[in-house]
Amino acid sequence: MNIDVVISAQHIKPEKFKDRIVVVIDVLRATSVMVTALNNGCDKIIPVKEIEEAIDIASKDKNKYLLGGERGGIKIDKFDFSNSPLDYIEDIVKGKSLIMTTTNGTRAIKNSEEAERIFIGALINGRVVAEKLAKLNKDVTFVNAGTDGEFSMDDFITSGYIINCLRDIMKNHCTLTDIAKTSEYVYINNPSIISFVKDALHYKRMKDLRYNEDLRYCLSKDLINIVPEYKDGEIKIY
């Protein structure tokens, strides 16, 4: 198994994803939202790049669809929810379809469509993602959504955690690129993830917006035991 990491959505080269599995990571907070919503009974998630597209889809059946997402960390006007995973409780999302658009995460997913399969990863489901990848035993690229097209420490250390889990399960029968080795090295030397990312730009932005509970939740390991997959324009538990 060959393992690689792409450091932001801006650095995606779709032609390099052919015959590979991709794991998209936007730990603060899009992929954490997706994992949480589906775990709480959401039927499916439709990720889109643009606000107008999300509104257009939702307008077809207002009883079926919920709108969630952000721009710059702030809830989009006329949307049902922001990008806080704590908003997506079972009583609200169960049996519903969620349409999401975010600054970084949904763009990273849509830009990875050349991959053979696309899974949704976060710290809250990190170990089970590694277990899934080990069973498939195919080359994998971790796509970090990043922040505004740039490298993001929180996504990078999340990749490192999942890589570390994967190498443990595979008994080190993996070949890592330099960037993948660096990602794992960062995690191994900073197992207290919050202490590593607390000075990161994205973390500080979330603190400034008073998303303290989101930060605690999203930067916790292995709370959820599902691996959502993006296929045919939808994210579901297949």
Q: Which labels suit this protein?
A:
238 residues, putative 2-phosphosulfolactate phosphatase, 37% helix
Architecture overview:
- With 238 residues, the chain is an alpha/beta fold.
- It has a single domain, classed as putative 2-phosphosulfolactate phosphatase.
- 37% of the residues lie in helices and 19% in strands.
- The protein has helices at residues 30-39, 51-58, 90-93, 105-110, 126-136, 153-169, 178-188, 193-197, 201-208, 212-218, and strands at 2-6, 21-25, 44-47, 65-71, 74-75, 97-101, 117-121, 140-144, 175-176, 229-231, 234-236.
- The protein has a seven-stranded mixed β-sheet. Strands 3-6-4-5 form a four-stranded mixed β-sheet, sandwiched between helices.
- The protein is globular.
- The two termini are 23 Å apart.
Instruction: Briefly note the structural class of the backbone.
Output: alpha/beta
**What do the pLDDT scores average to?**
95
**What is the annotated CATH architecture?**
Alpha-Beta Complex
Helix content: 25-40%
The name CATH uses for the topology is putative 2-phosphosulfolactate phosphatase
Identify low-pLDDT runs.
Answer: none
β-sheet strand percentage: 15-25%
Compute the separation of the termini in Å. Answer: 23 Å
Q: How many β-strand runs?
A: 11
State the CATH class.
Alpha Beta
Catalytic activity: (2R)-O-phospho-3-sulfolactate + H2O = (2R)-3-sulfolactate + phosphate
InterPro entries: ComB-like (IPR005238), ComB-like_sf (IPR036702)
Enzyme class: hydrolase
GO molecular function, one term: sulfopyruvate decarboxylase activity
